[in-house]
Design brief:
With 198 residues, the protein is an alpha+beta fold. The protein folds into 2 domains: 36 residues, no CATH class; 144 residues, Nucleoside Triphosphate Pyrophosphohydrolase, CATH 3.90.79.10. It contains 3 helices and 12 strands. The chain is globular.
Length: 198
């Protein structure tokens, strides 16, 4: 076993030997991947889920309030509080998809040059190849009528930043990629505030 200078095991990438598609299930594709252990040489099959690129966006109004949505989620069988988001089409840039999802779900829109990438997440790299792009979109105002699809009912709410913090601390927001997006946003906010003091 190889070790790093600190004495811990050094993790190596596994070699991919074979890929075997195993079905399309509308929102994801299933694939079996055979990979070789980098030290023993033994091979094994692992299941990987492939999805389109995910996006979410934190819309910020000119008054500094956060736009969020409440909607029913079938997996959790519960109504959740989230940021607007969805999936990008094959030809769509993540930022374009994030802006489109925001307008469709909430009717809120800002200038295209006011959207900022906060970071890219791997929602569950153990078995998903998914990447989720999180954005902040500044100067958003209600400029359009939301365009929900036939399976959606969405309530739009505006909240102060501090109330979002309180809702997370109280366990009222539990969606993991929403929590990750908010963490990236708050870290970005702290960096900007610190740089202004310098």
């Amino acid at each position: 076993m190889k070790t790093s200078s600190g004495g811990a095991a050094s993790v190596l990438k596994w070699e991919t030997l074979e890929r075997r598609p195993d079905g399309n299930f509308r929102i994801f594709d299933v694939e079996w991947v055979r990979r070789k252990h980098p030290e023993t040489g033994a091979s094994a099959e692992f299941v990987v889920l492939h999805t389109p690129v995910w996006v979410n966006v934190i819309p910020i109004t000119p008054q500094g309030r956060v736009v969020m949505v409440r909607q029913y989620r079938h997996g959790a069988d519960a109504v959740t509080l989230e940021f607007p988001g969805g999936v990008a089409s094959a030809s769509e840039e993540p930022a374009t998809a994030a802006m489109r999802e925001c307008v469709e779900e909430t009717g809120y829109q800002g200038s295209a040059d006011e959207i900022e990438l906060l970071g890219v997440q791997l929602p569950n790299p153990a078995f998903m190849a998914t990447r989720c792009y999180s954005f902040a979109w500044y100067g958003c105002q209600r400029r359009a009528v939301p365009q929900w699809d036939e399976h959606e009912i969405v309530e739009t709410v505006e909240l102060p930043l501090e109330q979002v913090d309180r809702l997370i601390a109280a366990g009222h927001i539990q969606h993991s990629i929403i929590l990750a997006a908010w963490t990236l946003f708050r870290l970005r906010t702290k960096v900007v505030e610190h740089s202004r003091r310098l």
